[in-house]
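User: Study the shape:
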Amino acid sequence: MDELSVDTGRGGLLYGLLRRVIDVHPGEVAALLWAWLYFFAVLSAYYVIRPIRDEIGVAGGIENLPWLFTGTLLGMSLANPPFAVLVARFSPVRFISITYRFFIFNLLVFLVLLQTTSGATSLWSGRVFYVWCAVFNLFIVSVFWAFMADVFSNQQGRRLFGFIAAGGTLGGILGSTLTSALVRHTGRSVLMLVSMLLLEVAVFGVRRLARLAKGLRERRSAPQQAKDKHSGDPAGMAEERAIGGGVLSGFSHAVKSPYLLNISVYMLLYTILSTFLYFQQAAIVSHTFADRASRTAFFADLDLTVNILTLAIQLGFTGRILKKLGVAMTLTLLPALSAAGFFLLGMAPVLWIFVLVQVSRRAVNFAVTRPTREVLFTVLPREDKYKAKSFLDTFVYRVGDQLGAWSSALMISLGLGVAGIGIAAVPISLVWLLNGLWLGRRQEKLATAAAKQTILADSVVT
């Protein structure tokens, strides 16, 4: 009896409990739980070392942070070609394992450097670690969602991605809690070892999930199944071959495809507006709180509120929202919320409005928009799921950071202030809304076309 069939027997109780929260089918329970554990481990690993990175950034001088952001963009540019080579030469489970274990080795090197160096060497080691953390974060999350888009179909993604994302939210909470509780007693070296262990747990989850993938890929065409059978390949083994393609195909496909190009625009506008809000946050909080301890407590309370609200939405509402509204309307929720929020900040740039906008915006993004955005990739060829997606999630994301930061700095230098930035962000939010509407409708057309093609192929083989 395989793991999929166990879900309806020995896992019947667990299936019944999950059904109370999400629309999961019996044969999906094992894969869903391994995906959940995988994301839990990935974000736990990151959030354990994130405070170490932030402390190093402050210790290196706040005035140097913009240069570290620029270094991060450069790091993304350098990391994408080697990753594309791995994607071309190895099966997904192998190149994901190689990528994560490469990061484990990096952490070991940084652990030694940060513990044994001092002076200028320690300072520059810390700066490199800061940049590395930003690259590490975007890559491990991007690879995770690429694998999810490959394992689960379009319809499964709509139902399950919200619950899977909740695993990451809990992982982030655990990682932050571990660091907060242990750093004073164990130091950062032990925490880096904990992060390495969690990454190895993620590799284990990838391998277990890969065994279940062939039973979940509802999009495989009948001709491909017949081809596998004729060639003597075991069921599903063809899908574990190397994906192939060129090293720069992620970039070239992202530029040439109107669909991928519009996903790039969606991400750029999100990151630009997020940076606008970050600058508004700095201005409002600095004027509201007089001391560093009060500001730190405020940010901690803000993060806790966001995480609790995000988790509640992910566990109970994300799948239902996607099912009821569809991809197109769901993708417009965050742009519409942003337009209203920035307008309110433009009219009354006070703390309680900022808190309302920031908490609601971040929670909706993590709980609803991000899982829905990952559904966009379920209708793409496998090469684009890994290469083009990685390029968008890493390089394009950081370009948006740069554009938002420099645009905000320019507006501040022109004397616009918090209110001016808020009003300037409203038309950008409306453009983002139209972009999301087009993307969602296009995704639904591609999904419908793929379903019809599969039905037609099945009828031909039959």
Observations:
- The first helix runs from residue 3 to 6.
- The radius of gyration is 22 Å.
- Residues 1-11, 218-239 have pLDDT under 50 and may be disordered.
